[in-house]
Amino acid sequence: MFCPFCGNELGNAIAFCGSCGSNVQILSEHESPIEVSEEDLLLKYFRDGHTYSVILDILASKHNLKYSLRTLKKKLNRLSLHRRKSYTPLDIVQAAITKELDGPGQHYGYRTMCQTLRQKYSITVKRQDVMRMTADLDPLGVVQRSRRMFVRRVYHSLGPNHTWHIDGYDKLKPYGLAISGCIDGYSRKVMWLVCGASNNNPEVIANHYLQCATEFGVIPNLLRTDCGTENGVMAAIHCILRSNHQDDLAGAASHVYGSSTTNQRIESWWSYFRKQRTQFWMDLLNDLRGRQLFNGSHEHICLVRFVFLGMLQKELDETKEIWNTHTIRAVKQSRCPSGKPDAMYILPHRFNGTDCGFPISQDDLDQFLAEPTRSMCGDDQLQANFKDLHTQGNLTTPLNWETGVENYITLKNMAEI
């Protein structure tokens, strides 16, 4: 699919073109649904690292495909998908690890690195080989990560969609990049992770909530946020949608305000998020400031958004996918199950949980949905100017941070800002 404004390929873009920044959401709304083949489903769930029994359960529960274990193994064998053979050559594995260590992956532990290799590069490798190579290639990073310590409080939840925890992440805000996230308290599945020009606009946060409810066809039993004014519209919409239910938390009781310290699920996840992803971007953008290439002005902030926002959103999508398919280890103090967030969310019966959400129709959601009113970089005039300069300079859409920095410097010089 291509952008109708600049002609560049959209790739995985959902709302905005990564090249010109134009709103292309209308294309996805009118796009014919894509049929996912049986082979694609098997490939996805196998590479996500699910066990055979979980794959069978997901296929039956979510896709109405019922196989025996023997049939599943035969189908996987035909696709050359094996757990303990056909390992990828170690030189290829080392090259992929080296590439990851050159970017945000420099903050990964070996478990996350192993998951990234499996999902991003389709690499089959033993975990101990990844641990050994990571230690050889990044010994200092291994030592730094091994010294961390977390103290966790006890958390209670009856099942998926019982409580959604929502919060904004502001560590990249000095550079104009605002992140909003939501996590399901029971499964720890990240429901949305979106970067934009603002996470303080109530309409923007409400739209994230509505888009998520549209994607999953459900709203949670309880919504938990901090006391920021950006959550007001979303809270009101949720309470209205829950007003006709008969449970104890129906209506106004279905949303809870609290301090950030009591919103522990999402606050705890932000700590992981910084170590695994945003620390790299903080260092990168801080380096631009140190080189006198960024001064915090409106023009510089808009240029950072124009160049890096699409790339960062792709990183966030990748982070969400890796997190939702990794295995959460059992913790003695926790009352919630251990396993893969996707599996715990889709198959709560396997973890002694119950789906606590309420199905919602698209008609109920459509009455609140609104078109985005702001451009990607937050200033229509500057965005149009940057788009023209991007075309004049014959610049390509950046695929990595090095190209992004080059584009930023080139556009900054062309715009004389």
Automatic annotation (TrEMBL):
Domain (Integrase core): residue spans on this chain: 154-333
One Pfam family linked to the record: rva_4
Protein name (Swiss-Prot/TrEMBL): Integrase core domain-containing protein
